[in-house]
Amino acid sequence: MSSVPAYARSCSETGAQLKPRTYGQVGAVMSGRDRVHVLRIWVKRPAGWRLIVYHEVALGQQAATAPGFSVNDCQNPCKTVPFKPKTEAEQAIIASWQALETGVTNHDASAWSPHIAEEFVMLGSSNDHPLSKADRIATLNLQKQTGHGSAPAPLVSAQMFDFWRCRGDDCLHQPYSGKPVHVSRLWIKRNGQWVMSISYQTTIQAAPAKAS
């Protein structure tokens, strides 16, 4: 990982903890100091390492967004998305994503888990700490007990980046109420299955909020 650039150090990231990961020709570097966390995804080109994704999130800066109205209220993204896959890989990732979001909607950790990497981490504006795969499973199990609605925020737009046996996506979601959310994800192909490894979710404070 030493050959992958960490980041262009700025005053705001002085003293930040680095958590690098390598996936073949792709390097993901996560840095964090206090509540501010940054994801940088680097891809190795013939001319060297090039930065292709930058995503910043401040933890705990936004109240949790309202979930779906019921566990059956997931058309987008569970059944349809406003994105047309251009390759078989993109189509497979969309299918994996729809399956895991259906698991979220149904509070079904066993349906969600196969689509998530063991090293999975999620950071979001509405969370006060990074969430692991085990954390998300615990949340789904609790929601199943309480009947708490958990349909995911519908997808508004998306683009995908091809990095060898990895894929990145850059998405905009609009929760059922509140401000839109910018999401960056990293997908890894393992044993013929596309699994999500990293998810950074930032509420767009400057955008108008959608009424309940």
SSE layout and pairing:
Elements: E1 17-23, E2 26-33, E3 36-45, E4 48-58, H1 88-105, H2 109-112, E5 116-124, E6 131-132, H3 133-146, E7 155-163, E8 166-173, E9 181-190, E10 193-203
Parallel strand pairs: 5-10
Antiparallel strand pairs: 1-2, 2-3, 3-4, 5-6, 7-8, 8-9, 9-10
Description:
- With 212 residues, the chain is α+β, with helices and mostly antiparallel strands.
- Helix content is 17%, strand content 40%.
- It is built from three helices and ten strands, in the order ββββααββαββββ.
- The chain has a six-stranded mixed β-sheet with strand order 6-5-10-9-8-7. Strands 1-2-3-4 form a four-stranded antiparallel β-sheet, with no helix packed on it.
- The protein is globular.
- The relative contact order is 0.18.
Rg measurement, Å: 17 Å
Cα(first) to Cα(last) distance is 46 Å
Assembly classification: single chain
**Biggest sheet features:** 6 strands, mixed
H/E element order: EEEEHHEEHEEEE
Beta percentage is: 35-45%
- Which consecutive residue ranges, at least 5 long each, have pLDDT under 50? 65-71
Task: Give a short overview.
With 212 residues, the protein is α+β, with helices and mostly antiparallel strands.
List key phrases describing it.
212 residues; alpha+beta; six-stranded mixed sheet; four-stranded antiparallel sheet
